[in-house]
Design a protein that fits this description.
Blueprint: H1 2-6, E1 10-17, E2 22-28, E3 37-42, E4 59-63, H2 66-75, E5 80-82, E6 89-93, E7 99-104
Organism: Phaeobacter gallaeciensis
Domain Glyoxalase/fosfomycin resistance/dioxygenase: 2-102
Protein name: Glyoxalase
Length: 124
Amino acid sequence: MAFYKLLGLVETRRYDSEQGRFSLIFLAPPGQEDAPIELTYNWDGDDGLPSDSRHFGHLAYGVDNIYEMCQHLMDNGVTINRPPRDGRMAFVRSPDNISVELLQNGEALEPAEPWASMESSGHW
């Protein structure tokens, strides 16, 4: 949850299933509660799922300033797997290994350092 709060998302609702042993957590940007993302938490773990969590693709999330968001995430210990070299797109991984694509809202920002020359890290 802390990772998604770093992205600026807030919990809008939650459904806990004691019988199914899972929780569904819905998060959205403030003021955009009608467009939530859903996170599924399996209380007993996710044994048997692919280890890189790319079996479903990835989550894409628009941000107002991709450079500021990437710096904010780095300042809080998040690895930028694919830096926003083009001022338009970056990839990070959530703590549960979900690939998250960050997209610049509107037009791409002008390429800027340190992002323009930053190497990719790991896989995304």
